[in-house]
Design a protein that fits this description.
Elements lengths: L10 H18 L7 H35 L1 H37 L1 H11 L14 H8 L2 H19 L4 H10 L5 E3 L4 E3 L1 H6 L4 H29 L12 E5 L3 E3 L3 E8 L9 E4 L2 E2 L5 E5 L4 E12 L6 E13 L4 E4 L5 E2 L4 E6 L8 E6 L1 E6 L2 E6 L5 E10 L2 E13 L5 E6 L2 E3 L2 E3 L1 H4 L5 E5 L11 E9 L2 E6 L5 H8 L6 E10 L5 E4 L2 E5 L1
Parallel strand pairs: 4-10, 12-18, 21-27
Antiparallel strand pairs: 1-2, 3-5, 5-8, 6-7, 6-9, 9-10, 11-13, 13-16, 14-17, 15-16, 17-18, 19-20, 19-22, 23-24, 23-25, 25-26, 25-27
Helix pairs in contact: 1-2, 2-3, 2-9, 3-4, 3-6, 3-9, 6-7
């Protein structure tokens, strides 16, 4: 099997990179917000690049699968690694997409985002609040999500770099492309954390473009890795004349309480030999498998050597090696798709996932509420007596369940909606109304949180009363009765009509009384 080496950058990719750098520099110089139109152009180009890379990756996976079917003994190991690359890349790509959508929600509100999702598919492509300078910092820095993104990107980067240890040039390119070191931010006037450098004081349009570039980097790295693994299937057919010691960890990132596992191998050695493996002066097992409990958080380094018999001289020789891995705190993403708090008696919808772990290996326990899965979401319904609900998440790692974190939510009763008289597309809470709008046959009394409300819940109007010239009449349901309409038709200009004693039943099954609607006929 053969193929292009390491996927060099195309002229188009270089152009996109240059445009991205120029626009970022201009933004840092406080150029007018009109420059955001330039970011939109870059974002569109990045999406085109992602689509092209996706097509290339799909063909690579197809070719790899076909080769594995023809010769599994030769390709199975590398095909399995490519499959894992695909899963991890998809997980990170989707995590970044969710990050973008949360920013879009803060910038435009849920109704606009969901409307774009229905019509365009991707609700982050045409954000109206692109010039907003606050929401990105709020979500990424104040709420701490930028630090989690940094950790997830570093996890993918270290994993990708570990797959290409034998290719220093490609490994360095991956480390540089997905770097998360400290950076510089004009607002900080000094070096600062990665997430601050990227998101602090950035308008939404710029941040969305930066995140799209990250997605493009994820797909490009995925393409490089798969091509590299395809090339490895031919490596065994070639004679080598150099001996190297390699440390191949299962992962360079370990959650505290988990295990760090690595395979230490000697490349191109006679298979009839059994090398001896030493870590910090102590001999380990003959399989070269090094395992140690991951206790303290931080960077862990170790070194050792492999003792083997030189087939040419018959003498014992040592090849040194060294490696490192990171131990981090458990991390879990818990986001309420409706609100930032939970409401009593209501089906609160949650999206719960652990980066890098498939959903079927994630377990959710909730105290103080009923919980069930539905269509990829977790539906959590607090009981009547619940004041606080705790969501605890664990994930299956290395064959055992590992706690990933928990979060407490305050439980409140559903807020009372407002009452409106809806005629056509217009909603009246008070004020002047025309005779035609008042007597519109399709007009109804509705309960709503208003066009700018965060909630959109199904309330049913059960009854209301109408005060017409001092006469109070009652209607069942949400429309005027025939008698009420007859009385309304006789009113003169300037007459006052008050819809009062409005009662509505909410999704929690409870009935509530809403504020009256005073209307003046004009």
């Amino acid at each position: 099997m053969s193929g292009a080496k390491n996927c060099p950058e195309t002229p188009r990719q270089k152009m996109i990179g240059m445009m991205y750098l120029v626009l970022t520099a201009m933004l840092a110089l406080n150029v007018s917000t009109d420059i955001l139109n330039g970011f939109t152009l870059v974002d569109n180009s990045l999406h085109s690049s992602i689509e092209a890379t996706d097509k290339r990756n799909a063909q690579l996976y197809k070719d790899f699968k076909s080769a594995n079917a023809d010769n599994p003994e030769k390709t199975q190991e590398w095909f399995d690694k490519a499959t894992e690359v695909q899963l991890r890349a998809d997980s990170l790509y989707n995590y970044i997409q969710n990050f973008k959508e949360q920013i879009a929600l803060l910038a435009d509100g849920r109704k606009k985002v969901e409307a774009r999702r229905a019509t365009e598919g991707d609700p982050t492509r045409h954000i109206e609040g692109n010039s907003n300078l606050d929401v990105t910092g709020q979500y990424a820095i104040v709420q701490g999500n930028g630090a989690i993104l940094k950790q997830v990107v570093a996890y993918y980067r270290d994993y990708a770099a570990s797959l290409v240890e034998a290719d220093a040039e490609l490994r360095n390119a991956i480390l540089q492309n997905l770097a998360t070191e400290r950076g510089y931010n004009a607002h900080e006037k000094d070096s600062c954390d990665w997430e601050v450098a990227i998101f602090d004081g950035m308008p939404v349009g710029a941040s969305i473009t930066i995140l799209t570039k990250m997605q493009n980097d994820v797909r490009s790295t995925e393409s490089q890795l798969v091509q590299y693994l395809m090339d490895r299937t031919d490596a065994g057919d070639l004679r080598v004349n150099k001996l190297n010691a390699y440390v191949i960890p299962n992962s360079n990132y370990v959650i505290r309480g988990g295990k760090y596992s690595a395979k230490i191998i000697l490349a191109a050695i006679d298979s009839t030999q059994t090398p001896e493996y030493y870590i910090e002066g102590q001999r380990i097992n003959d399989q070269g498998i090094y395992e140690v409990s991951a206790s303290g958080v931080g960077l862990k380094k170790y070194s050792g050597w492999i003792a083997f018999q030189n087939p040419s001289t018959g003498e014992m020789e040592n090849l040194p090696f060294s490696s490192e891995y990171s131990v981090g705190e458990p991390a879990v993403t818990i986001s309420n798709t409706d609100l930032n708090i939970m409401y009593r008696g209501y089906d609160n919808k949650f999206s719960i996932s652990v980066p890098g772990v498939s959903n079927d290996k994630v377990k959710v326990n909730v105290s103080g509420a009923a919980v069930r899965q539905q269509g990829g979401l977790w539906i959590i319904k607090p009981g009547d007596g619940s004041k606080t609900v705790t969501i605890s998440v664990s994930a299956e790692l290395d064959g055992r369940m590992q706690p990933m974190g928990s979060k407490d939510y305050r439980v409140k009763a559903l807020p009372k909606p407002g009452a409106y008289f809806k005629s056509g597309e217009k909603e009246y809470s008070d004020g002047n109304i025309s005779r035609g709008a008042l007597l519109n046959g399709g007009a109804t009394v509705i309960a709503s949180y208003g066009p700018d409300g965060l909630l959109d819940l199904p309330y049913q109007i059960t009854s209301f009363k109408v005060n017409i010239n001092g006469v109070l009449t009652e209607a069942r349901g949400n429309k005027f009765t025939a008698d009420q309409r007859s009385r309304l038709e006789k009113l003169k200009m300037g007459a006052i009509v008050v819809i009062t004693d409005i009662r509505a039943k909410g999704p929690d099954g409870k009935e509530t009384r809403l504020s009256p609607i005073p209307l003046s006929l004009n």
